[in-house]
């Protein structure tokens, strides 16, 4: 083996080992480096906790198992325009402040039932008897929630797990069965 090749490979391994801790957060979870949106580790942890509350781990993998929080962040970073990205970040900050004021804790530190109740309250606002105004901008918290939920569900339904284990995808539906017994056919008699 060539000594130069060994030294190059060794340098790559050592360099990767040095850079690896910068990609891992305080709690040992890896975080996504975003290009257009400024969402810190706490914001990314919030999105991960919301995604896991929306699609929890049961007998099937949850959102964190399928790496859906990273998908949500990358979709927001790559596919949202500047105005929608700013509205998303503003909604995230408002949501964090509201949770701290009402519960005194971070969203991820709350119990599962409490988190579900909070998200259901955002999804189904209380019914009022006044007519909705057309020119009033939507609530930033609601925009943030629907952004996270929409991308989480989209990522889940397009994930490899869902497409191979939950819904068995066939490229061409229907099969040509050469030998099919006539007795299994349901013939209509007139």
Using DSSP, what is the number of strands?
0
Tell me, rounded to a whole number, the average pLDDT: 82
Low-confidence stretches: 17-25
Percentage beta strand: under 5%
- Give the number of helices: 7
Q: What is the gyration radius calculated from CA atoms?
A: 24 Å
**Whole-number count of domains:** 1
Report what the structure shows.
By secondary structure, the protein is mainly α. It has one domain (24-184). It contains seven helices and no strands. Helix 2 (41-54) crosses helix 3 (68-79), helix 3 packs across helix 6 and helix 4 (82-103) packs across helix 6 (140-157). The protein is extended and about 70 Å long. The model is unreliable at 17-25 (pLDDT under 50).
List the main descriptive attributes of the protein structure presented here.
190 residues; extended
SSE topology:
Elements: H1 3-19, H2 41-54, H3 68-79, H4 82-103, H5 112-123, H6 140-157, H7 160-166
What can be said about this structure in brief?
This protein has 190 residues and is mainly α.
